[in-house]
Design brief:
alpha/beta, Arc Repressor Mutant, subunit A, Rossmann fold, 2 domains, seven-stranded parallel sheet, three-stranded antiparallel sheet, 15 strands, DeoR_HTH, NagB/RpiA_transferase-like, DNA binding, transcription
Length: 275
């Protein structure tokens, strides 16, 4: 079982609900997150996978949701631009994100320069890098990540200037993009909203533009995504996987996706998630 949801989020654990009540909880969960896997719903709702499959099939038949391989998402016409808030994003796959972040941090070398993109999985990498006591130079556009990195006297932290996105701790804007043109870091640790057929996408044009600039500012571009991110594409294209050097994902990644990535010649690290 996964770690419990943060206290700030409404509890979604249910006991002996009627099918209609349970399905309403699923719809509420999807409204917060946009897209989820069966495993995520099982952990959050404490309901068996077989029951959830029946619930999702029923909701799909009613036209409320769209079914995907291993999960569900908002109706397609609304999903491409759907963007969960930062608290909602952090609720999903916490164990997977922590394992991926730890593995990515373990690959960093002393005295490297590292760009930390915004996002909950990259935040876990920042925390793991600090826990290693590694000396390095960091640049980020995420205030939460900057704060985590600043806890170590071994890390020299630089924060890009820009505009703070409403409801988040992410900085965006032309000032940031211009600043990114002036640096060439050793490593970029980058997240993504969705990966579909070799294309990395985001819901926000501003976030997508920043990610593209950060990718151009690093020698080694490393993508940190849990298996649930391999899903239908969203609004704005960031890059193709040809522009990424390494991918870190949990070992729940479907075998066909893993084979596709390896056929692209990408270095793929599948991280086991335990305990």
């Amino acid at each position: 079982m996964s770690a419990p949801l943060p206290e700030s989020a409404p509890s979604l654990a249910v006991v002996s609900l009627l099918p209609a009540q349970r399905r309403q909880r699923i719809v509420e969960f999807l409204r917060r997150h946009g897209a989820v896997t069966l495993v995520q719903l099982e952990q959050a709702l404490e309901v068996s996978v077989s029951t959830l499959r029946r619930d999702l099939d029923s909701l799909a038949a009613e036209g409320v949701i769209d079914r995907t391989h291993g999960g569900a998402l908002l109706r397609q016409q609304g999903y491409t631009a759907f963007e969960p808030d930062s608290v909602a994003s952090s609720e999903l796959s916490p164990r997977e994100k922590r394992a991926i972040g730890t593995a990515a941090a373990a690959a960093l070398q002393p005295h490297q320069s590292v760009i930390f993109d915004s996002g909950s999985t990259v935040l876990e990498a920042a925390r793991a890098a600090v826990a290693r006591g590694l000396p390095f130079t960091a640049v980020t556009n995420d205030l939460a990540i900057a704060q985590a990195l600043g806890a170590s006297p071994q890390v020299q932290v630089h924060v890009f200037g820009g505009q703070l996105r409403p409801g988040s701790q992410t900085l965006v804007g032309e000032q940031l993009i211009e600043a990114a043109r002036a640096i060439q870091a050793d490593v970029l640790l980058c997240g993504a909203h969705a990966i579909t057929g070799g294309i990395i996408t985001e819901t926000s044009p501003e976030v997508a533009a920043v990610k593209r600039a950060l990718m151009r500012a690093a020698v080694s571009r490393r993508l940190l995504v849990d298996a649930s991110k391999f899903r239908p594409r969203t609004f704005m294209q960031v890059a193709t996987l040809d522009e990424v050097d390494e991918i870190y994902c949990d070992d729940a990644l479907p075998a066909d996706e893993a084979e596709h990535l390896r056929n692209l010649g990408k270095r793929l690290t599948l991280v086991p998630v335990t305990g």
